């Protein structure tokens, strides 16, 4: 047998083995999941873009996981998804029957607080639904309708927990560029933030999903809401005239620090699970999630919710998450200082 023929024979054998291995993994996962229930823990309160997207995933994912298990959404708000992350990492079974749909700021929170009781690099990342665009906003009659005006006039902003972008971003901007945001903490969901804004309890929101704004057309059509900044490293094509938090930095060091605050947007809305899920189930969940995102009906329902599907695979997410822990210690220390609760 010639060298070329031998190579083709080896390659064919490898492909056949891979195919049989893949089939065996799928069958093993199907046997496990048949008749079982997967709990999808949504790390936010009821209402708002995170809850809506999480429930959409729960509705469709069961069709694409071998064995067609029931998928039940369960809201677990608290500390900007830190509570949910701690539950998934420490309490939930590591067998693939509990998954999470949590805010990407849990990664930055761990970078800033090494004592947090979970480790993002050990979580099992399944896949990204969409790159997430968060914005800071003010109400139409607020004393600041732009970042520049917020440097001159105090504006009361709704925030969540001290670990969330709705709090840390306004605090960081106050310290770095001289804005005068006064943050009121304790709002557990986007819906609660928006209700407080409409009731006049606050004059703005430190961070909310762009989908929360675009999903209420009257906000922009009637000019009820001003968009102040985008919490990202790149501008959103939907609102290209609104600066990112990186754009407003006054120095290169400031921009590097603000980049850390913008990085979670690229992690986006993702599904993940506890550490050590068996490999066959991890592979089945990742494959099922990827197939779900190609379902025309799913895509149509996603668009109705202002979701722009932009898949990123589990391994790619694992790499992206790990990159967040390679930042220079001095920048981390400065960001930690300016995002700590004011005394």
Write up what this structure looks like.
The protein has 343 residues and is an alpha/beta fold. It has 2 domains: 3-132 and 268-329, 3-Layer(aba) Sandwich (D-Maltodextrin-Binding Protein, domain 2); 134-264, Periplasmic binding protein-like II (D-Maltodextrin-Binding Protein, domain 2), CATH 3.40.190. The protein has helices at 3-33, 48-61, 82-90, 105-112, 147-150, 165-177, 190-199, 210-214, 218-221, 252-262, 264-267, 279-292, 296-304, 314-323, 329-338, and strands at 37-42, 70-75, 98-101, 124-130, 134-139, 155-158, 181-184, 204-209, 225-231, 269-273, 312-313. The radius of gyration is 22 Å and the shape is globular. Mean pLDDT is 90; it is low at 14-21.
Could you spell the SSE succession in H and E letters?
HEHEHEHEEHEHEHEHHEHHEHHEHH
Query: How large, in whole angstroms, is the Cα Rg?
Result: 22 Å
How far apart the termini lie comes to 79 Å
Largest sheet: 5 strands, mixed
- Under CATH, the topology of the largest domain can be stated as D-Maltodextrin-Binding Protein, domain 2
Going by helix content, strand content and strand pairing, the class is alpha/beta
**Helix amount, in percent?**
40-55%
What is the global morphology?
globular
What are the low-pLDDT stretches, counting only 5+ consecutive residues below 50? 14-21
What's the number of helices?
Answer: 15
Beta-strand share of residues? 15-25%
The tally of strands reads: 11
Provide the CATH superfamily of the largest domain: Bordetella uptake gene, domain 1
Provide the CATH architecture of the largest domain: 3-Layer(aba) Sandwich
The total tally of domains equals 2
Average pLDDT:
90
CATH hierarchy class name of the largest domain:
Alpha Beta
Strand order of the largest sheet: 7-6-8-5-9
